[in-house]
């Protein structure tokens, strides 16, 4: 459990670039470098996380931790990956926003954005070779990326994931192999998810209760994670705090590493100013909890579902579409936020060569890109 915590703590300190970049970091760390799970196992977990509401990259980390060390590993992965951004945004809510105005810090952060670009480009190439081996899966990948470049947004993302699943499910051939017995979900966890969704609004008479209800509802209804959670949070927290404070938190959440859902850490502290730490903890846990409960509940039946040929085909289509999502994210927002000058493109190209060909460790590459950005600032 401790190795799981330490690996995810490091990733929580260095994983800039949002959910797409996090998937790239996870793939390189846990599949390529550590070998904790195979590429196929990684793809199955990723497909499940894409189908569920909640923070997709944090759910993937939770699933990897569970795969490695059970419930303790899942919790260690969540705490390690979330803790750095939780602390940074809590400090920001307590009045330390001025730290983000430091020019040296800005340059170092830009170096880490270039690292995110390199890691995601490497992940796109690796996953495309694994999941897009025929003309159909390649077409789904390209169509998904093109659709998101043309019309970005959650609706397009969900539409392309659904289309990829339906197309490949239709193409899947019936298998004569025996199908294993159906294994149902973990019903107690699924019931707990529903009881909390229905019961927490009954506690809304108190400020902590209302905070729990609002953030749990947002975590239960958001598909796609990351930026998609913002409209749901703005309906509750944005109206209470005002647009200025809400947008400040949104900007800070993009500057720190780790999951963007830790925007809840900032908002929770502001919503309970007399109990900032409590508010930050409650909001963060309430926003993440629904996705983790659903992942835990449906994990046991996922393998038996995949034994059905059509569903296995649907997962293959989802995997191809996910590669397209990563390819689209490589340009927006990662490329657009990282490559501001030709010099940035040169650094990224060199970084990709060092990572892909020379096999330079990510830690060393991070130091080189940050140092280069500082020297050229």
From TrEMBL:
InterPro entries: Chr_Tranpt_l_chain, Chromate_transpt. Keywords: Cell membrane, Membrane, Transmembrane, Transmembrane helix. It holds the Pfam family Chromate_transp. It is found in: Cell membrane. The chain crosses the membrane at residues 71-96, 108-128, 140-167, 187-203, 215-233, 253-272, 279-299, 311-331, 352-376. The keyword Transmembrane applies. Its main location: membrane. It is a multi-pass membrane protein. It comes from the Bacteria. Belongs to the chromate ion transporter (CHR) (TC 2.A.51) family. This is Chromate efflux transporter. It comes from Aeromonas bivalvium. The gene is chrA.
């Amino acid at each position: 459990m401790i190795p799981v915590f330490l690996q995810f703590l490091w990733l929580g300190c260095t994983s800039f670039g949002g959910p797409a970049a996090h998937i790239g970091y996870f793939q390189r760390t846990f599949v390529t470098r550590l070998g904790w799970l195979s590429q196929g196992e990684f793809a199955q977990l990723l497909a499940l996380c894409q189908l569920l509401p909640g923070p997709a990259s944090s759910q993937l980390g939770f699933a990897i931790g569970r795969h490695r060390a059970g419930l303790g590993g899942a919790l260690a992965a969540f705490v390690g990956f979330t803790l750095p951004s939780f602390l940074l945004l809590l400090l920001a809510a307590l009045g330390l926003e001025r730290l983000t105005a430091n020019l040296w810090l800005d340059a170092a952060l830009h170096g880490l954005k270039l690292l995110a670009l390199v890691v995601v480009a490497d992940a796109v190439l690796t996953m495309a070779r694994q999941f897009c081996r025929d003309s159909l899966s390649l077409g789904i990948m390209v169509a998904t990326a093109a659709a998101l470049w043309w019309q970005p947004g959650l609706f397009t993302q969900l539409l392309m994931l659904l289309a990829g699943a339906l197309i490949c499910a239709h193409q899947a051939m019936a298998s004569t192999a025996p199908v294993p017995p159906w294994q149902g979900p973990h019903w107690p966890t699924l019931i707990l998810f529903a009881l909390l969704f229905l019961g927490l609004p009954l506690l809304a008479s108190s400020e902590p209760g209302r905070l729990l209800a609002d953030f749990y509802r947002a975590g239960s209804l958001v598909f796609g994670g990351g930026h998609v959670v913002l409209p749901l949070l703005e309906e509750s927290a944005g109206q209470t705090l005002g647009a200025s404070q809400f947008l400040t938190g949104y900007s800070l959440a993009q500057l720190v590493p780790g999951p963007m859902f830790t925007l809840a850490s900032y908002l929770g502290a502001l919503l309970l100013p007399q109990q900032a730490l409590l508010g930050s903890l409650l909001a963060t846990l309430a926003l993440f909890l629904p996705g983790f409960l659903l992942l835990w509940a449906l994990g046991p039946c996922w393998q038996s579902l995949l034994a059905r040929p059509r569903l296995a085909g649907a997962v293959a289509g989802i995997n191809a579409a996910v590669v397209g999502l990563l390819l689209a994210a490589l340009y927006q927002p990662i490329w657009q936020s990282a490559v501001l000058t030709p010099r940035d493109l040169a650094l990224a190209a060199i970084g990709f060569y060092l990572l892909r060909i020379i096999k330079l460790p990510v830690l060393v590459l991070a130091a080189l890109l940050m140092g280069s950005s500082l020297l050229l600032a």
